[in-house]
Design goal:
It comes from Caenispirillum salinarum AK4. Keywords: DNA-binding, Transcription, Transcription regulation. GO terms for molecular function: DNA binding; DNA-binding transcription factor activity. Pfam families: FCD, GntR. With 257 residues, the protein is mainly α. The chain has two domains: 64 residues, Arc Repressor Mutant, subunit A, CATH 1.10.10.10; 142 residues, Four Helix Bundle (Hemerythrin (Met), subunit A). Helices cover 62% and strands 3% of the residues. It has a two-stranded antiparallel sheet with strand order 1-2. Helix 1 crosses helix 4. It is elongated and about 60 Å long.
């Protein structure tokens, strides 16, 4: 029951501040028993998504009250959420602030297993793009899954328990970007080049270069989200470049539709 209600909540059918239908109406709508409905509402309440009001019913909480760090909530966001510019911008702000530091830590601490996980995820992204370039149907889901796996591998490579457990928050951000963007092959190649360079900086144990490479990946993401008009600038002033000479060259941008 929680799953069915989550689909309605995250798709925008039920909005913050609105009252949910009565329990009997939910039973009829979903063909479920009253105990099942109550259990679903209890799960959503425990996650801060709804609040039971005695004598009135159940109200949808404001977005700021939702437990966005819970893996179940981030999964629902990735599966059911409509593109929400404010949500995407706030998740991006988190990533922009943290991922350069995480990349530097990974460059210091990554093991051979961590590097293999990054390489396998990167190869999955590349294979999905090459398939599309060869005329196969563009598999956005596979591409985003590998993209998430790539960044999650970097989080885990810090060998910091907190960072590793926060990696799941990447999924809704990355999934929604890939799902809604209409990037050209050239733009995707540019993005892959930045990911490859980041991976190589980590593999070569160059923390400062890895930090800068992560900023360049985030700059590309900001462009794809429509946060900046320039794929080489972040949401604020562009950082001072000190990437090594083998950094990928800037691709000619073709703004996505």
């Amino acid at each position: 029951m929680a799953e069915e209600l989550a689909a309605g909540l995250f798709s925008g059918r039920y909005r913050p501040g609105e009252m949910l239908p009565k329990e009997t109406e939910l039973c009829d709508a979903f063909g479920m028993s009253r105990p099942s409905v109550r259990n679903g509402l209890q799960i959503l309440s425990s996650l801060g998504i709804v609040r039971r009001i005695s004598g009135k019913g159940t109200v949808v909480e404001e977005f700021r009250e939702w437990n966005l760090l819970d893996p179940m909530v981030t999964r629902w966001m990735a599966e059911y959420a409509q593109p929400n510019p404010n949500f995407l911008a706030e998740i991006f702000e988190f990533r922009h602030a943290t991922e350069p530091t995480i990349a530097a830590l990974a460059a210091r601490k990554a093991t051979a297993r961590d590097l293999l996980a990054m390489e396998e995820a990167f190869q999955g992204m590349e294979a999905a793009l090459e398939g599309a370039e060869a005329g196969e149907e563009w598999d956005r889901s596979a591409f985003s899954d590998h993209d998430v796996a790539f960044h999650a591998a970097i989080y885990r490579a810090t060998h910091n328990l907190v960072w590793a457990q926060l990696a799941h928050i990447l999924r809704p951000s990355i999934t929604l970007v890939v799902r809604t963007s209409n990037e050209t092959a050239e733009e995707l190649r540019d993005s892959l080049g930045r990911h490859r360079h980041l991976m190589e900086c980590i593999r070569l144990r160059r923390p400062e270069d890895a930090e800068e490479a992560a900023r360049r990946v985030m700059a590309r993401t900001a462009f794809d989200l429509g946060i900046t008009p320039d794929p080489d600038a972040g949401p604020g002033p562009a950082p001072n470049a000190h990437a090594p000479d083998d950094a990928p060259k800037k691709a000619s941008p073709h703004r996505r539709a």
